[in-house]
């Protein structure tokens, strides 16, 4: 059985004090949760403080992004080694907002996956199609390109440090989400595709998360699907009252 993972991507929200307050609430609220991996991704400026607040808990820290070089003249960027130094165990790469707003290519995202895994961290690689691409029946073509290009040169051994997050772009922050059946169909396709790339055994162990307007009232049905191994949560991760029911869905 694949161990579920629920990650909260706080995006560009919360001061250090606000982030620490939320971390304290989450730490208290998951004290009895033992069968789910929990990850939070604050803004860079709050990472160290949140990491300290989470000490003694099972909640892991993630960076929302990284630059694939370890050091150098790259003003404004943060490397995987610096994220590790701040206490991170995970790094989100290829989020649709990075692809869309910052025009990051599959090739550039691939460099990030390599840099993150080389540093001994876990990469949460995001993939997903736009509404136009779905309407044009290009979903599987888009996902195939994103997966194959994003994982180019990643060995089966390194794949143990990779988590895939399927986030249909049309469902992010829109209040819409894929139906459980739609999400399962795509997750099943991704697992088969990953089996072709890195072998069936590796693909069967690899966790694939769903992201896209995941909330407490739809988490149970989504996360009960056979090939959905957890969630990458956006807006609902900004309040403990919204995030904790998603984390605790298995305890109901």
Structural account:
With 252 residues, this protein is an alpha/beta fold. It has a domain at 66-236: Aldolase class I (TIM Barrel). The chain is 41% helix and 15% strand. It is built from eleven helices and eight strands. It has an eight-stranded parallel sheet. α1 (16-29) packs parallel to α2 (47-53). The protein is globular.
Brief summary:
The chain has 252 residues and is of the alpha/beta class. It has eleven helices and eight strands.
CATH domain fold name of the domain at 66-236 = TIM Barrel
- Largest sheet, described in full? 8 strands, parallel
Helices and strands, in order, run as EHEHEHEHHEHHEHHEHEH
Overall, the morphology is globular
Cross-sheet strand order for the largest sheet: 7-6-5-4-3-2-1-8
CATH superfamily assignment of the domain at 66-236? Answer: Aldolase class I
Total number of strands: 8
The proportion of residues forming helix, as a percent range, comes to 40-55%
Average pLDDT score: 95
- Give the quaternary arrangement of the chains: single chain
Name the features.
252 residues; alpha/beta; TIM Barrel; eight-stranded parallel beta sheet; globular
């Amino acid at each position: 059985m694949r161990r579920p993972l629920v990650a909260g991507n706080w995006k560009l929200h919360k001061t250090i004090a606000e982030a620490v307050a939320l971390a304290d609430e989450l730490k208290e609220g998951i004290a009895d949760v033992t069968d789910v991996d929990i990850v939070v991704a604050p803004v860079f400026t709050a990472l160290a403080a949140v990491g300290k607040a989470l000490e003694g808990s099972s909640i892991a820290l993630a960076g929302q992004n990284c630059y694939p070089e370890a050091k150098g003249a790259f003003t404004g960027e943060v490397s995987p080694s610096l994220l590790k130094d701040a206490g991170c165990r995970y790094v989100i790469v290829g989020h649709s907002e990075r692809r869309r707003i910052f025009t990051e290519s599959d090739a550039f995202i691939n460099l990030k996956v390599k840099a993150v895994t080389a540093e001994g961290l876990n990469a949460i690689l995001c993939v997903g199609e736009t509404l136009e691409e779905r309407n044009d029946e290009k979903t599987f073509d888009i996902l195939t390109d994103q997966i194959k290009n994003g994982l180019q040169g990643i060995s089966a051994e390194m794949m143990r440090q990779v988590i895939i997050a399927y986030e249909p772009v049309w469902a992010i922050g829109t209040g819409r989400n894929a139906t459980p059946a739609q999400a399962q169909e795509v997750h099943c396709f991704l697992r088969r595709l990953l089996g072709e790339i890195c072998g069936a055994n590796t693909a069967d162990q690899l966790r694939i998360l769903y992201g896209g307007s995941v909330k407490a009232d739809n988490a149970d049905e989504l996360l009960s699907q056979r090939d959905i191994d957890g969630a990458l949560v956006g807006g609902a991760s900004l309040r403990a009252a919204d995030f904790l029911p998603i984390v605790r869905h298995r305890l109901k």
